[in-house]
Structure prediction request, 261 residues.
Amino acid sequence: MRRTWNPAWVPGPEPEKMYAHVEDEGRRRLSRPPLQLASTSLVAGFDVVFGIVALAVVQHHHGHVAGSIAFGIAFVFIVVGKSELFTENFLVPLAALSRDDRGTWLKLAELWTFSPIVNLIGGAILVLVVTSHGVLPEGTGETAVEIADKIDENGLLTAFLSAVAAGALVTLMTWMVEAMEEMGIRVLAAWIAGALLALGSFNHVIVVTLELIFGWRYGGDYGWGDIAGNFGVAALGNLVGGVVFVTLTRTGQARSGSGSP
Prediction:
């Protein structure tokens, strides 16, 4: 007898079980030595720049929607390669913090301070490589400047609210990726989140800072002060979006023992 597939036969994990996976990963991240943190953060910067290259090249030929879909590969690289993007740490290590262990709080401070700096160092190095001596196809630089100029035109409030959305989106991706065991689901969640981030031009502190550096290399009409100013706004907005909109709500959902949001 032929059996008809029924999605109800394959239930997903309950929020409590998902949160338990997140806690385990958080303890792992908080126990890593500085060298491992540095190397994984450096690689994440490379991953983001490869996504920006895909965004600029594809957008130049096929428009913003296609370019945004192409950018999603950056987050796939990050998830599959287990590299360390700063905004991934607004949920996972917070779940593993211990009130009785001051060391976990110090490790969190190290993580939040060290990872964004090394993300940008790694990304900036690769930006210098790919923007030198005609490495990228003709027209890529023009599109990179257009992307960066659109970011630079945002007012303070717009930049902050966009950053809140970016923080919430990436932290939601982290929740799904870390809680699920199937690699296919992880890859799909990462790609969708990356594509949405680029599609909405949301102000993600690492992605946008590297996009601005990328555009600056091709003659974008803004300076390092503008880049640094947006970095501060984006970091704060990402933190609010990630912690308030996702981490607190998902923690409450899991600890309440209810499967409903």
